Amino acid sequence: MGRKQGVKIGAASDVFDDFMMPSRYKAMYGGRGSGKSHFFAEALVANAATNQGFRAVCIREVQKTLKESAKRLIEDKIIKMGFSHLFEVLNDQIKTPGGGTIIFVGMQDHTAASITSLEGFNVVWCEEAQTLSARSLELLRPTIRAPGSELWFGWNPRNARDPVDLFFRGMNPPENAIIRRINYDENKLFPDELEEERIHDKTSNPDRYDHIWNGGYEPQAINAIFTRQMIHDARRDVAPDLDRILVGVDPAVTNTSNSDYHGVAVCAVGDDQRGYLLEDASLHGSPHEWATRAVAMYDKWEADGIVVEINQGGDMVKHTIESVRKGIRIIEVRATRGKHVRAEPTSALYSLGRISHVGTFPELEDQLCKFTSSGYDGSDSPDRAEAAIWCFAELFPKMTTAKSEQKEFYGHATAGGWMG
Ligand SMILES: Nc1ncnc2c1ncn2[C@@H]1O[C@H](COP(=O)(O)OP(=O)(O)OP(=O)(O)O)[C@@H](O)[C@H]1O
Ligand SMILES: [Mg+2]
User: Fold this and answer.
1) CB within 6 Å of ligand 1 — which residues?
2) Which of 20, 42, 44, 189 to mutate to test the pocket of ligand 1 (most atoms within 8 A of CB)?
3) Residue of minimum CA distance from atom 25 in ligand 1
4) Per-residue confidence of the chain (420 residues) as pLDDT tens digits?
5) How far apart are CA 126 and CA 134, in angstroms?
6) Beta strands 275-280 and 305-309: pairing type?
7) Do 77 and 42 meet the contact criterion of CB atoms below 8 Å apart?
8) d(CA 235, CA 412)
9) Which of 17, 81, 148, 303 could anchor a disulfide with 245, C-beta 3.0 to 4.6 Å?
10) 86 exposure class (CB count in 10 Å sphere: 0-12, 13-18, 19+)
11) What fold is seen in the domain 14-186?
12) Which of 9, 19, 38, 126 to mutate to test the pocket of ligand 1 (most atoms within 8 A of CB)?
């Protein structure tokens, strides 16, 4: 990093001066590297250091481990701001002066009842607020009710219909709110490493540049066959009783590229005959690692089988799973046509409102929304989405083989499979 860093709060930009004022809502959105996370982390530490018994909760829609939380950033700020003697960093919380605390939670782990435990908190800081569900926002707002309490939101906008965008940037934004866009060009501490990334994106990823760096909404693929609206409208918090559960795997061809994941998704048919996406467990790693993950998902969800794409060689794929566990029902599928063609029957189920995501799966959903009627409109490989698509195709065989001409869109890897 070429530039000197100070410990003054909000040193990265004058914009942050506005956010020092008390306000019920503080909403900061923009592209990557604008200093949103650093500012809020510093502001949280400064508040805790100067207000006895200060209580804050850092939330995300989904937080599977503390590594995904802002805990580490806050710990670094405590040290850098010279307050180590005031705070006590524990495994899952940071104790603040005067008996307060900073905790880290995922909204998905909370119910309307359990969320009331946050009532006495002074600040809620929501990172990656673009993934916040309408339900989470609805639960949070009345819960945070201590005198002078504040709700802070930082996000990189995706879609005008995302609940946080509707709330702050829609027709009727809340009063007593500071709402501001900030981008990298206002960050005086913008690091050289990110500048290189930015320059790279400008030439190699021009379609998405405005979204990534200027805080613009995601480009909506023309003729997209899945839309965010469809996915949001059907979203559920819990699944009903499930009749049939499958783990889908779309193995990456290599495990060297940073962008290639092994898609691993868990999907089911409920006793209401609707489809449910239950988990996205995609990962980087070796073939043994994806097989281990797939078997772990099979156990966790008590699944009926593993659907796996075998373009890289059926025997090899089967052997990889069997090296982890023998005796699991493996349903092999072979991709013979374009990705979007394989996705179409599943997109029809979505547009009929017959598939619900149980929770939020931002990366997988991003991939789904890049499928168009003429191809996949992303520079990445849609491994996560395809893992789910393989599952739904198997779970709803009528849908995917109803028209005879659709048969040719799929290979015939197993007799009795959904292609047969
Ligand atoms: N107060 C600060 N002190 C030190 N460095 C800072 C500060 N603010 C910003 N930076 C530098 O700018 C970079 C980007 O800041 P930050 O991670 O807060 O941005 P962001 O808007 O949260 O971006 P993203 O969307 O990528 O999460 C940091 O990695 C850091 O190098
Ligand atoms: Mg950030």
Assistant:
1) 5, 11-12, 32-38, 42, 156, 187, 189-191
2) 189
3) 32
4) 333 344 578 889 998 999 999 999 999 999 999 999 999 999 999 999 999 999 999 999 988 899 889 999 999 999 999 999 999 999 999 999 999 999 999 998 888 899 999 999 999 999 999 989 899 999 999 999 999 999 999 999 988 888 999 999 999 999 999 999 999 999 999 999 999 999 999 998 787 899 999 999 987 778 889 988 789 889 998 999 999 999 999 998 765 656 579 999 999 999 999 999 999 999 999 999 999 999 999 999 999 999 999 887 778 899 999 999 999 999 999 887 777 888 999 999 999 999 999 998 988 998 999 999 888 988 778 999 999 999 999 999 877 554 433 333 333 333 333 332
5) 14
6) unpaired
7) yes
8) 32
9) 303
10) middle
11) Rossmann fold (3.40.50)
12) 38
Calculate how far, in angstroms, residue 35's C-alpha sits from the geometric centre of ligand 2.
7
How far is ligand 2, taken at its centre, from the CA of residue 28, in Å?
A: 10
Tally the residues of the chain. Answer: 420
Q: Where are the domains of the chain?
A: 14-186, 231-410
- The alpha carbon of 154 and the centre of ligand 2 are apart by a number of angstroms equal to 7
pTM tops 0.90: no
CATH for 231-410 is 3.30.420.240
Q: What is the C-alpha to C-alpha distance for residues 131 and 361, in angstroms, rounded to an integer?
A: 9
